[in-house]
Amino acid sequence: MTAAKHELRARAGELRLAGKTYDEIVAELGVSRSSVSLWVRDLPKPQPSPERTRRMRKAGWESYHRRQELLRGQVKAAATAEVGPMTDRELFLVGVGLYWAEGEKDKPHQLRERVTFVNSDPDVIRVYLAWLSLLGVEAERLRFRVMIHESADVAAAERYWADLAGVGVASLDKTTLKRHNPKTVRKNVGEGYRGCFVIRVLRSADLYRRVEGWWYGIVGGASRTE
Question: 22-29 and 33-40 are packed helices; what angle lies between their axes, rounded to 10 degrees?
Fold first, then answer.
């Protein structure tokens, strides 16, 4: 063995004892993997340092999360395609269920019979507005209001919801501000936090009664399929 190879072998041993992998030694010395394997095979397998372990674990988790995100995206895209275009009847039924799940409802001790809907999800608001339009509710009967914590960017939230509803900010009712409590650990913070959007339908007693009846019809129809 030449002197140069002796030096490479000795250096390979040092690197192995320092915790380097075969591939890392190959990359540093510029020799074949088979040579490295031959030179260091009798040395104990090194244990990775805590820092290296953390890096390996982090890299593994990042790879896992990327795979999971790709899988989630594929499942969601396939599910979206399964829905396809909605008929008016399908939107009608979705809207009834959406209102009865999220909208204001009467209580036995408090009969109001008014249609008011509150939600923080822009897509839910879009579906609800499309439903009201399908029912023929005139735009002039709609009143809009923002509910948001006072520590948030109130003006930006008002612009966002007004744009979504297709109205001017000036046409919104006075925003309801929730007092900030520093002791409360809130997760709905950051640029994406826009509070809730309130949609109220004027002169809606008859509509409320019909929504309630439609819901009972859905419940009855589902019960008959059991």
Answer: 120
Token reading at 135: 């029912």
Calpha distance 143→172 (Å, rounded): 7
Per-residue pLDDT of the chain (226 residues; tens, 9 = 90+): 687 788 888 888 888 888 788 888 888 888 898 998 888 888 887 766 677 778 777 877 888 888 899 999 999 999 999 999 999 999 999 999 999 999 999 887 778 899 999 999 999 999 999 999 999 999 999 999 999 999 899 999 999 999 999 999 999 999 999 887 665 555 556 678 999 999 999 999 999 999 999 999 999 998 875 5
Q: Are 116 and 198 in contact, with CB atoms under 8 Å apart?
A: yes
State which H helix or E strand residue 144 sits in.
Answer: strand 142-149
How is 78-134 classified by DSSP, letter by letter?
Answer: HHHHHH-SPPHHHHHHHHHHHHHHHB---BTTB----EEEEES-HHHHHHHHHHHHH
Q: Where are the alpha helices (DSSP H) in the chain?
A: 3-17, 22-29, 33-40, 50-83, 88-102, 122-134, 154-165, 205-224
Q: Which residue has the tokens 């890096």?
A: 55
Distance, in Å, from the CA atom of 167 to the CA atom of 163, rounded to the nearest integer, reads 6
Structure tokens that stand for 44 in this block = 């104990």
Distance CA(36)–CA(124), nearest Å, equals: 61
| Alpha-carbon span 120 to 139, nearest angstrom | 21
